Amino acid sequence: MKKLLISLAMLFSVSSVAAPLVNVETTIGNFTIDLNQKMAPISVKNFLRYVNDGSYVGTQFHRVIPGFMAQGGGFDKDLNQKSSYKPIRNEATNGLENNTATVAMARTSNPNSATRQFFVNLTDNDFLNYARSNPGYAVFGKVTKGFDVVQKMAQKPTTTQGGMQDVPVTPILITKMTLVK
């Protein structure tokens, strides 16, 4: 009986541990990302590495497509690419889907190429999920506060700049990222 009570106490203490939250401050407003460490441990660890080293500060949302997504974290205000840590393994098979307000790792055509860039889904993007688009794009969190700020990004005029399309005419910069929990 005593072992059962200890096991139950451990279960409740583990399950009551809050997921990490990251506050993202931008030049047009703030939003909060609830990270899913349980389902996407590699992506969350990778994302937090950039949050903790401060290198997301001064980067911009360089690709914003209404009705699709807002992507950022990889380029500074002048569209110079930021240095990255080694790419991570794609966790798109984790069961999390690219639904409205979820946050996923951006990558190249190589499924295991994600580094620092991430995107926020502005709508349900089923075609980005593993089940529909093997290898898919790994979701690792969700905007739980301030999603209207991300939606506002999609209302800003965009242009083609530096060989990239859908770049906001006025840069939308990350001014601060803070780990809350």
TrEMBL record:
Reactions catalysed: [protein]-peptidylproline (omega=180) = [protein]-peptidylproline (omega=0)
Family membership: Belongs to the cyclophilin-type PPIase family.
PANTHER family: PEPTIDYL-PROLYL CIS-TRANS ISOMERASE CYP38, CHLOROPLASTIC
Keyword Signal: yes
InterPro entries linked to this entry: Cyclophilin-like_dom_sf, Cyclophilin-type_PPIase, Cyclophilin-type_PPIase_CS, Cyclophilin-type_PPIase_dom, E_coli_cyclophilin_A-like
Gene Ontology biological process terms in this record: protein folding
GO molecular function: peptidyl-prolyl cis-trans isomerase activity
Pfam families found in the cross-reference section: Pro_isomerase
Its EC number(s): 5.2.1.8
Keywords: Isomerase, Rotamase, Signal
tRNA-binding keyword on record: no
The PPIase cyclophilin-type domain, residue ranges: 25-179
Protein task: PPIases accelerate the folding of proteins. It catalyzes the cis-trans isomerization of proline imidic peptide bonds in oligopeptides.
Protein species of origin: Vibrio algicola
Stretch forming the signal peptide: 1-18
Name the record gives this protein: Peptidyl-prolyl cis-trans isomerase
